[in-house]
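Something for you to look into today, if you have time. Could you write out one complete protein record for me, on any chain you like? Leave the record below and I will have a look.
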Amino acid sequence: MYEYLRGVITEVTPYYIVVDVNGVGYQVYVANPFKYEEDEHAEQKVFVYQAVRDNDISLYGFKNS
């Protein structure tokens, strides 16, 4: 279980953002990825929820807890 990720936002797509944490890129689904465009290439803290299903493990991100 993850509480948050602190890292650099390296990519913003229509469905998710990529947070680089010490060289590992985490794909994090967020409600409105374009809110993070102004934070792209800056270190940010993204609170996350890890969803585990039979055929998928996903991270969902939030600006605050």
In short: The longest strand covers residues 43-53. Residues 10 and 41 are 6 Å apart (CA to CA). The mean pLDDT is 93. Residues 4-62 form a domain with the OB fold (Dihydrolipoamide Acetyltransferase, E2P) fold (CATH 2.40.50.140).
